[in-house]
Every structure is written in C-alpha cells, then in structure tokens.
Design goal:
With about 270 residues, this protein is α+β, with helices and mostly antiparallel strands. Helices cover about 30% and strands about 20% of the residues.
Length: about 270
C-alpha cells in the first residue's frame, strides 16, 4: 500500500500518487503511442516515395486467338491448343512485359483468309495471321518479313503449332515457338534490359493481304493498341499509403482529444 505527500506537506491516503509520479506515469503511458505514430508515418512516407518496380521485358512470339472480331491472348500454349474448324490464330513477334500486350496489327476473319480454300473431307481449315513485328522489336534492328495470312488445311486433331507450321518452318525450344519462317534466326524469349523508345511506341495498323484473294485485311484500330501497350496501373501501393496516412491522422486527433480531456479533468 502506497502513501504520498501532498503539496501542503500532509500525507495522502493509500494509493495516493504525487504530481511528479503522475507526470512520470503519464509520460510512460504516452511513449508507446508516440512511437507507434512515428512508425506509421515513416511507413506511409516510405510507401509514397518508393516507385513501382520496373517489370522485366522480353522479346518473344505472342500467341492469340480471334474471338468476336478481336484478338485475345490464348489461355494455353500452342502445342496444347486444338483450334476448331473455322477459327483463326494470331501470332505477333514483339518486345513486351507482363503489363503490356502486343497484338497482331491487323484483324482478318476466317472468311477473308479461307474464302478461296475449299474444304477437304477429314481435315479442318484454320486461318493464321503471322505478324513479324517492327524493326524496333528486332534484337539487332533487322527488317522483319512482311506480315502474312495463311489458310491452313490440317488434320482435325492438329494443334495450333501444326497450324503455324503452314506459315513456314518453325524453330522451337522446350515447347516455345522461337522462330517462324526463319525469323528471328536466333534467340528465344530473351530478356530485354533496356527497351528503346521506338519499341515502347504504340503500334500503327498494317494491311495484310488475304491469301489468293488479295483482299485487304481490316486494319486493327489504333485505339485498342494504344490501350494495350499502356503500363498497368501501379496505384495500389499509393492507395495503401494514403489510407495509412489517414489512419495516422485519425489516431493523432484521437490522442490529442484524449489528452485534452485528461487535462480538463485534472484542472477541475
């Protein structure tokens, strides 16, 4: 049981705490809260000032499928995809990362590609568009072959890799398509340390003649291409940081209000 001495020199009752002891206890109680507030502010500042990590870029052949008149990224590898009769595959060689997509620069329908190719019993017809990309996509700024379209007549069980082989000899490595019709001559999905401004630039639509019919393809709209090549939003970290700052401010306001009430009670 503790006793304390009051300001007039008298001895207080049990549990009485002197002003100095109360101030010490109050300071000790406030210290963890202050430390927590400082830590939260430091964490928020770190999140706000730290930029997003740069996504790695690679030079590779992208595999797409035509769906409702638009290119969509294939959900499986070409050696695991068995396209149906009347479908269209698309391939594009380019530099890209996980936050960007380089689509074939023209859209051709099955009718445009295979109109002049008769159906064969026991086989299927699959259109394939091969876009060799731009000089900026090449490792040594080489001039790539012109994009082309082919109507492939293949067995019904043929995969998309088999369909692509109708566009030219394939160079593959561990199931990946590395070269089509001799392009590129070397390399396979290599990392690109520095992506040039030309490689980052938006695609311009091209015209691809349909096989045999010499009919121009419908150019792909440049608007989707621009949108596809924009980096993915990196606002997640910033949003978290601002939420953390808001929580810090609310905690600080609550602390100041509590402290003010305590002082008012002590004065009374």
């Amino acid at each position: 049981m503790r006793t304390g001495v009051t300001e007039d020199g008298s001895v207080g009752g049990p549990g009485t705490v002197s002003d100095r002891e109360e101030e010490t206890v109050s300071t000790v109680a406030r210290t963890p809260l202050r430390v927590l507030l400082v830590a939260l502010v430091a964490a928020a500042v770190t999140l706000l000032t730290t930029g997003p990590a740069q996504a790695a870029a690679y030079r590779f052949w992208g595999f797409y499928q035509l769906s409702n008149g638009q290119w969509t990224f294939a959900q499986k590898g070409s050696d695991q995809t068995v396209p149906a009769d009347g479908s269209v595959d698309g391939w594009r060689f380019a530099v890209g990362d996980e936050s960007s997509t380089r689509l074939p620069r023209a859209v051709l329908t099955f009718e445009a590609i295979c109109a002049s190719t008769p159906a064969v019993s026991g086989s299927k017809r699959v259109g394939v568009v091969v876009d060799f990309g731009r000089p900026a996509d090449a490792e040594d700024a080489a001039t790539p072959p012109a994009p082309k379209a082919v109507c492939a007549v293949v067995p019904t069980a043929a995969t998309s890799t088999d369909v692509l082989a109708k566009a030219g000899e394939l160079r593959t490595e561990k199931g990946l398509v590395c070269g089509v019709a001799g392009y590129p001559a070397s390399g396979c999905g290599g990392e690109v340390k520095q992506v040039s401004a030309e490689a980052k630039a938006a695609d311009a639509p091209v015209t691809i003649a349909a096989p045999a019919a010499s009919t121009s393809a419908t150019p792909a709209s440049s608007a989707p291409a621009d949108a596809a090549t924009q980096p993915a939003s990196s606002s997640t970290g910033t949003t978290v940081a601002w939420v953390l700052v808001a929580l810090v401010v609310l905690a600080l306001v609550g602390y100041l209000l509590l402290r003010s009430r305590r002082r008012s009670g002590a004065d009374a």
